[in-house]
Design goal:
The protein is α+β, with helices and mostly antiparallel strands. The chain is built from two helices and seven strands; from the N terminus they run ααβββββββ.
């Protein structure tokens, strides 16, 4: 056992003595000399930036190529009138800033002042009455009952005239 112990000590002493030998730092010194010789302040130029060009899709109002063309009988098409036109001097109401398809009738109220309809859309539920306006096409509320709102819109006919277009909104019941 003493012999084994002395053998381990001898191996340990020889191993440690190898660490205290003469070190060769020539490769480190040559790398440092090479770095010191490099010119200072040279930075590679940035890559060229290609600006983004926005693409505007222009065929959204054209007919879908997957549907057959629609034949329009121009002789029977309803013509607008120069007598009918919206009142442009009127101050527009809040609900006229939204498309009428966004609204749905959810209820009705009545009191001594008259009949009111409740419509949901434009971020909440709104109370409207006969004479109020709804939607972007100058839609005037002309009748309200418990199950339906009648709206008369004034829309352009495409030839400089205006058409009156009746619409109805029916009560949306919970499903």
């Amino acid at each position: 056992m003493k012999r084994f112990h002395s053998l381990v000590c001898l191996t340990l002493i020889l191993g440690l003595s190898g660490c205290s030998g003469n070190h060769d730092f020539n490769d480190l010194q040559s790398f440092m000399d090479e770095v010191r010789v490099r010119p200072k302040g040279t930075i590679e130029p940035l890559p060229t930036f290609q600006p983004y060009e926005a693409f505007t899709y222009g065929a959204s109002n054209l007919r879908s190529p997957f549907q057959p063309p629609i034949r329009i009988d121009l002789a029977n098409q309803q013509k607008g009138s120069k007598d009918i036109k919206p009142d442009e001097a009127r101050i527009r109401q809040f609900l006229e800033g939204f498309n009428i398809e966004l609204f749905e009738m959810v209820g009705s109220l009545s009191n001594e002042d008259g009949m009111y309809a409740l419509v949901r859309g434009a971020g909440g539920v709104h109370r409207i009455r006969i004479g109020d306006y709804l939607g972007r096409n100058h839609g005037k509320i002309i009748a309200i009952n418990e199950a339906k709102i009648d709206v008369l819109e004034i829309v352009p006919d495409g030839e400089g005239g205006w058409l009156e277009r009746p619409r109805s909104m029916t009560l949306k019941e919970r499903s």
